[in-house]
Amino acid sequence: MMEGVYISRLRTGSFCSPGVYMEVMWKLVLAVVLAVALLCGGSDGQIGCRNEADQPVDWYILYKLPAHTGIGDVYYYIDTKVQKMNTEMKPVKPINHQAGVLANTLAPYFNKEAGSGYIAYSDQPPTSNALPEFGHSKGFVMMDQNSGFWLLHSTPRFPFDKASNNFFPESGKENGQTFICVTFPYATFKQIGLHLQYIHAHTFEHNIPDGFHNELKKAAKLKDGTKLKEPADIPKELYQDLKSNANHPFRSFVKKVLDTESDDEDCDDEKKRDLYFHIAQNIGSSVRAQTWNQGNKFESEDPVYNVECIEVGGKKWNTNDHSKWCVSVDDKGPEYWTCFGDSNRARSQCKRRGGALCIQDKTVNGIFKNFIKPKADCKKQSDQPSAPKKLRQ
């Protein structure tokens, strides 16, 4: 209110001391800076992962709890700024909060940031389901020609709408879900674009401007009605080492798939068809894997063991968890891997493409290993509510 008084006096030629004048001008400059910051989706203008304070972070991970725990819109969170101060992920704002980490990260998408590009992909986009020849995968990538983020997640219909007050689908609150966001330099999006091509990521919305990486342009064209074909330069090992903006080590994997003419009996050989087997083989460690606990699931067998009970924030469950992650369990010095995947450990997906993004970090690895509890610690699955049958997983 006082600001308005000072401005009025200046305009009418009333006396104003130099000190008052400087104060008014400083406040005007500050107001302009704040307005520009809001339009840019962040005070620094960087496209990348952002925390609840709308500050840039190199990466973050969040775990949304299932609805039957009584707090289905709550997520637990860790990022590069908080992990050294906490040994457990801390519950924060609701998953759909307009000032939460997801909304802050997606602000350039909501605001149609000039000079940026993006690809939203999902086998279960907001209005329909993708054809089965597309990958069982969900994610969002956005970048300008300086940096960007890759947000790999497990939530169907996300983002539901291009608005900060309606981006999270109501159906997404039913089950447990995970999100991993990593800020990468622009050059890395050539590798990410190649990854999306190989997994046949189903693009349901995109905008890749002229002058951006061709790998992204090709990935953006993967949608219904397009002819799918392999990129010419797929890595033989089906994984890529990536470095975040802050040079943190990550690794992306793609899932080996059956030829469409192969016998379905080959699906019984999990060593040929299971994404998590190939991850375990690559990182040189047994893994504990959490995937959708419905349907014809691969049994636990070295080196992949199914997670049968989870406890996060004092809540325990063994069903209604749609997240897909695995954690290395062999303590081998620096080899502490935690991976967030697209695929379930299910025979029904042996012909379906997908992938994973893994972080090499001892703290994250320890947190997720601590989430895993003995089966006896959870109620029997029949005692807990089953997943909605109408939602294809």
UniProtKB/TrEMBL annotation:
Residues of the signal peptide: 1-45
Name the record gives this protein: Deoxyribonuclease-2-alpha
UniProt keyword Disulfide bond present: yes
Family assignment from sequence similarity: Belongs to the DNase II family.
Pfam families the UniProt entry points to: DNase_II
Any one GO molecular-function label of the UniProt entry: deoxyribonuclease II activity
EC annotation from Swiss-Prot or TrEMBL: 3.1.22.1
Top-level lineage group: Eukaryota
Magnesium found in the keyword field: no
Primary role: Hydrolyzes DNA under acidic conditions with a preference for double-stranded DNA. Plays a major role in the clearance of nucleic acids generated through apoptosis, hence preventing autoinflammation. Necessary for proper fetal development and for definitive erythropoiesis in fetal liver and bone marrow, where it degrades nuclear DNA expelled from erythroid precursor cells.
Any one GO biological process: apoptotic DNA fragmentation
Keywords recorded for this protein, A-Z: Apoptosis, Developmental protein, Disulfide bond, Endonuclease, Glycoprotein, Hydrolase, Lysosome, Nuclease, Signal
